[in-house]
Amino acid sequence: MSIIKKEKFLSAYIQLGKYLNTDSEELQDIVAKAARNNAWFQESEIKKAITALAFMLNEDDLNIWFDQINLTDNPKKVGLILAGNIPMVGIHDILCVIASGHSALVKLSSSDTILIPFIVSKLSQFESSISHRIEYVDRIQGYEAIIATGSNNSARYFDFYFGKVPNIIRKNRNSVAILNGNESDEQIHNLGRDIFDYFGLGCRNVSKIYLPKNYPIEKFYIPLSPYKVVLDNFKYQNNYDYNKSIYLVNLEQHYDNGFILLKESASFSSPLGVLYFEYYDNLSELTDHLNQHLHELQCVLCEDPIQLNKTCLKFGNSQHPRLWDYADDINTLKFLENL
């Protein structure tokens, strides 16, 4: 296979980013089609994902990112097993494989079979050689490396089947936010995006908040009222109603504002329709605790600087990663470069 200069890839990626900002009739049609195929993928949520991808593919960031890429002169077949919990969640892995000069054997999630092939086909229109570097498969075979995303349970199987080749195997992760008690209504509203975007289904969604001791819960709830529209999705409402009934029957203490339940818990991972919370007395002790559990966390959000061994995002930014915000803090490009 001939090696294509990375300038051609860069140009194609830039054009794709600009295309995603056009809101063309073609793009509107594919959004509507994908929404009909998956009840979780409401048009509003797909449009959020497209906006986030367009933001990721801005020209300035692409130039910085591509400057770090050493295009391989020994292309490998990289198997990609993609998740489908939120729209186009696996597109970054595909972009990394293509940009590094390798070929991708893509096992799509049954939940997301429309958006990713469309985005890749559009990218191929801007650089025709890309179409020869992507193959969609029902069964991963002939791979020389693997990037697989799934649950803690599926990760055990991935380890068994793919452990003999270079691999990145991703497990469950969660995201948390730390409040200091002095946040404005606007800041809490921004945090609502981190909680409710994609109905809380992503690993970058906040599933738990840390509150200073004696924090009044109503102060947190009021700015979130505009997000009540999540109940328009029957699947979300079913989860909310189910968890509410469980807590009521079991007499488990919780707070309820009519569209999300707050429950005190030491766990990071909350059920859908539930946001866990935990009080803290000492921020330094909380930071130490989080530093010990970074392997379980995708994002940490806070408004004040803290001594965390991980970048702390501002409220409202968890679902807008940059090109170099690699999942699980594993540099995908470096992994591909070393194949």
Give the neighbour order of strands across the main sheet.
Answer: 8-9-10-7-6-11-12
Indicate the CATH class of the largest domain. Alpha Beta
Number of domains: 2
Shape: globular
Rg value: 21 Å
CATH superfamily of the largest domain: Aldehyde Dehydrogenase, Chain A, domain 1
Report the average pLDDT across residues: 96
What does this protein look like?
The chain folds into two domains: 6-172, 3-Layer(aba) Sandwich (Aldehyde Dehydrogenase, Chain A, domain 1); 174-313, 3-Layer(aba) Sandwich (Aldehyde Dehydrogenase, Chain A, domain 2). The mean pLDDT is 96. 39% of the residues lie in helices and 16% in strands. The longest helix has 16 residues, at 234-249. β1, α5 (91-99) and β2 (103-107) form a beta-alpha-beta unit. The chain has 339 residues and is α/β, with parallel strands linked by helices. The chain has helices spanning 6-20, 25-37, 43-56, 59-67, 91-99, 115-126, 152-162, 185-196, 217-221, 234-249, 283-291, 332-337; strands at residues 77-81, 103-107, 134-136, 145-149, 167-170, 174-178, 206-212, 255-256, 261-264, 274-280, 297-302, 312-313. The protein has a seven-stranded mixed β-sheet, with helices on both faces. Strands 3-2-1-4-5 form a five-stranded parallel β-sheet, with helices on both faces. The chain has twelve helices and twelve strands.
